[in-house]
Sequence to fold (217 residues):
Amino acid sequence: MEIYEGSLDVKMIFGKWLDEQSHSNYGAFIPFVGTIRDEDDIDGLSFDIYEPILQKWFDGWVAKAKTQGAIVKMAHSRGDVAIHTSSYISAVFSPKRRIALELIDEFVEDFKANAPIWKYDLKNGKRIYAQERSTPMIGSGLLG
Amino acid sequence: MIQVEFLGPIGHSDMQVEASSLEQLSTILKQNPIIAPWLDKSAVAINDEMVFRVDTLLKDGDRVSILPPVCGG
Fold:
């Protein structure tokens, strides 16, 4: 898991991951790239991350992927990220394509629901919490 | 004494609180008008482990994190 300040250098990170696995004999590499769209007059997005719990969440996925002979990778931005650049990329390497295709779907969906990352719209010089697009994590409401 | 931290957009500084269970902590936090609206939609971790039972006991020195709704990517 990799955290970067600002926009991700997608080509550099994917290149690094591919180089790392160039002799691992994985038959499938499925990447996912999240790019910030120009919508609702935003200048970009901004992110807070709670890294200790994010790392544990990710470690759980590493272990799950390992049981299927696969590996998962992810990189995410912290701070401000401009439109038309990327804040999140992930990938699965696996021996055969079916496992990787299924894992990337589950992994990205669980990421959206349970990774401790908070998103803000950057608009007119303000940083506005994206409350309506946010999802309570599993177990929320314990103290309510 | 336990420490409570409020992550992401909650916008409240850390608190030092006397509480021996999450139930007690809930009662205390519900009295705070800034924090109370977040409680029914926030998850809870103790010392960076997610917890799922309100009868979980707290011990001196524990660090409780309040995690509001998330949206990565």
